[in-house]
Amino acid sequence: MDKNTMITLALSKGRIFDETLPLLAAAGIEVLEDPEKSRKLIFPTTQPDVQVVLVRATDVPTYVQYGGADAGVTGKDTLLEHGGSGLFQPLDLQIAKCRVSVAVRNDFDYEQAVKRGARLRVATKYTEIAREFFANKGVHVDLIKLYGSMELAPLTGLADAIVDLVSTGNTLKANNLKEVEHIIDISSHLVVNQAALKLKQQRLRHIIDVFAAGIAKNN
Ligand code: PRT
Ligand code: MG
């Protein structure tokens, strides 16, 4: 189908896909195949002019920014790191909720380290969020960029602290880590390409409206 009539939605596998499905269903959009059981990256839906593309969670804002997708669903954490340029952010979908926190080893005295003005080594995937948080707090940090398994950094001596997502807290507990700062609450947002919003206004507006009604119902 013509790129100008097709609506492409970017989602990531896992919790964002799973938690977006009910909102799509409310808009009459059902994905025709289970992505967990398929190697495909593009999925047709029950609406011939709507397709879903599956990308890495951190790539969703980039796809939408450059028009590889017309709209997408992405965590606020990912959006803050991306910066949000070129993206219209009409809705907080109130799904995939968690928080960004600072965590250290159980035996590390974080308060004391901050009080005496120590320079902290902080490992994180969230360098922008961490940089801003510690700058506002007046704490000097050396940021170490990681792409996964942040919890390992304090245990191996790579870092004093991590900045990571926490939901139940079980992962921290299982690794003898404790949460010492709650930086920001996170949920997933609908993002829309600004040019697409003008070109395909009617249909994108419809999706935004139905999603909005779905959130109201869920909360
Ligand atoms: O896994 P991959 O590297 O492909 O990408 P990703 O980790 O960015 O994707 P995914 O699907 O894991 O996460 C997508 C989005 O879901 C994130 O950007 C968040 O906005 C949101 N989300 C909500 C979470 C969590 N809750 C969450 N608990 N993302 C990750 N976690 C991880 C967290 O990083 C930690 O390792 O779960 C662990 C902590 O969980 P608890 O319950 O043990 O505290
Ligand atoms: Mg993950």
Distance between the termini: 36 Å
Mean pLDDT across the residues is 96
Series of secondary-structure elements, N-terminal to C-terminal: EHEEHEHEEHEHEHEHEEHH
Fraction of helical residues: 25-40%
How big is the Rg? 20 Å
Number of strands: 11
Shape: elongated
* Largest sheet geometry: 6 strands, mixed
Name its key features.
ATP_PRibTrfase_cat, binds magnesium ion, alpha/beta, glycosyltransferase, 219 residues, six-stranded mixed sheet, ATP-binding, binds phosphoribosyl ATP, 11 strands
Topology, please?
Blueprint: E1 7-11, H1 15-26, E2 42-44, E3 50-54, H2 60-65, E4 71-75, H3 76-82, E5 87-92, E6 98-105, H4 110-115, E7 120-124, H5 127-137, E8 141-145, H6 152-156, E9 161-166, H7 170-174, E10 177-186, E11 188-193, H8 194-199, H9 201-218
Parallel strand pairs: 1-3, 1-4, 7-8, 7-9
Antiparallel strand pairs: 2-3, 4-11, 5-11, 6-9, 6-10
The protein binds phosphoribosyl ATP (PRT) and magnesium ion.
Domain ATP phosphoribosyltransferase catalytic: 56-209
Organism: Comamonas odontotermitis
Main location: cytoplasm
Question: Can you describe what's shown?
Answer:
- The structure is a single chain.
- This protein is an alpha/beta fold and 219 residues long.
- It has 9 helices and 11 strands.
- 34% of the residues are buried.
- Helix 1 (15-26) crosses helix 9.
- Helix 5 links the parallel strand 7 (120-124) and strand 8 (141-145).
- It is elongated and about 60 Å long.
- The strands form 2 sheets. The protein has a 6-stranded mixed sheet with strand order 2-3-1-4-11-5. The protein has a 5-stranded mixed sheet with strand order 8-7-9-6-10.
- The two termini are 36 Å apart.
- The structure holds phosphoribosyl ATP (PRT) and magnesium ion (MG).
